[in-house]
Amino acid sequence: MGPEELNTPGDIKDFADKLHKEDKIDIPEDPRKLSALYVALYLYSSLVPKEKRNKGLSISIRSSIPIGSGLGSSASYSSSLASLIGIYSGSLLDNSSKLDMCLVNEMAFKAEQVVHGMPSGVDNTTVINGGFVRYSKGKPLEILPNDNSTSNEKNSLMFIIVDTKVPKNTKVTNEGNAKELISEIGNISTTLFDMLSNAPLDTSDQYFMSRNSTISELIKKNHDALAKLGVSHEKLEHIIDVSKKHGYSAKMTGGGGGGCAIVFIHNIADTFRNAHNLSSNNNLPSVNILSADNNSNGDNVNCKSNIKNEERGKTEFIVKNNSSSENLVEELTRNGYTCYPAILGCNGLSVKYQIDNPEFEDWFMSCSIQELTEF
Predict the structure, then answer these.
(1) Which residues have C-beta within 8 Å of that of residue 29, sequence separation ≥ 6?
(2) What's the pTM?
(3) How many CB atoms lie within 10 A of CB 103?
(4) For 149-191, how does the pLDDT look when each residue is reduced to its tens digit (9 = 90+)?
């Protein structure tokens, strides 16, 4: 079997086993690393022509996304790897030698199928396009355009992602009212998406205050409905309670039963109005070829983190004002949670690269996440 015949997850596994028997690759025991290997093999075999396969390809990856927490880490990995291999092979470039994002999205989705079987496509679409994406089962994905315009920048929302460090475990325990609760959750999502879709071009501080108040209430209702479904966790409920004490609404995100919560920082409207100063690297769920950075330069919160070789270093928050968000982060950190600032609704995948440059690779693997952001 040749690489060009890898059409199913079974084909990829067989090919990986073949390479392992030939002592060409190691098969990791960690299921997450094994999935990452399968994705890399699939994308390489699909995108790199035979004439370029004689010298192989060395790929270095760094990320600050908590793995397995329902934050789209696999879609971010698939999207960044598809763009990287697509540039290297030239197979995802358009007539002007620019990366064709539609083709990247298509390949990222196929790579997600390797990992998840039947993904919705919403994760990779959000990673690549940025902005907001609405998913309804059986309907096409609806994307709130991210055209870097002022109106879109104002739609950006500031959150604190809080990692419980408990593996996610989705299991509905209240099946009796599930249909009604899921319908309620769907209505909440529709209300939020419609609000962001119809944001006025000329907004005032009063608009932001009203909008953020409504979003805070929607977040509270969303979590309450999810908790009634039985997909919460005592750690998540603790984060919700601590956030409420400091004046913020929070909810579980991802699969629930552990994983992460998100806290909406509603009182930094100036950050939204200056969102053009934030590159796509500042959006935690989005990834570019270099990194998925968690550095956010908002008015209140700034995060610096050093992450090397899949080992998470110390994360330090520097809050410029003695604000309730500072107190919130301090309390959550004291209780053993890890916090990351994230801008939702900003730009998606971006690409900055230097091919076949050993010095660049050495710098990439040794520099701090902050340096990558500045690059």
Answers:
(1) none
(2) 0.75
(3) 17
(4) 444 455 678 899 999 988 777 666 666 678 888 889 889 988 9
End-to-end CA distance of the chain: 41
CATH code at position 187: 3.30.70.890
Beta bridge partners of 264: 159
Unique residue bearing structure tokens 């079987």 = 117
Residues 33 and 127 in one domain: yes
Amino acid at 283: N
> Which tens digits make up the pLDDT trace of 184-233?
988 998 898 888 888 777 677 788 888 899 999 999 999 999 999 888 99
pLDDT at 282: 36
Q: Are residues 103 and 155 in the same domain?
A: no
> pLDDT tens, 32-47?
889 999 999 999 988 9
Tens of pLDDT along 63-99?
878 777 778 889 999 999 999 899 888 888 887 778 8
Listed as own residue / partner, the contacts of 361-368 with beta carbons closer than 8 Å and 24 or more positions apart are 361/58, 361/60, 364/60, 364/62, 364/290, 365/60, 365/62, 365/308, 365/309, 366/308, 368/304, 368/306
Number of domains in the chain: 2
- 53 and 187 inside one domain: no
Q: What is the DSSP string of 287-315?
A: --SS--------SSEEEEEEEETTEEEEE
Sequence-separated (6 or more) residues with CB below 8 Å from residue 282: 293, 295, 296, 297, 343, 346, 373
Same domain, 33 and 99: yes
* CA-to-CA dists, residue 282 to 61, 92, 229, 259, 275, angstroms: 17, 25, 33, 21, 10
Asked if 73 and 63 count as a contact pair (C-beta separation under 8 A), the reply is: yes
Return all residues near 322 (Cβ < 8 A) that are at least 6 apart: none
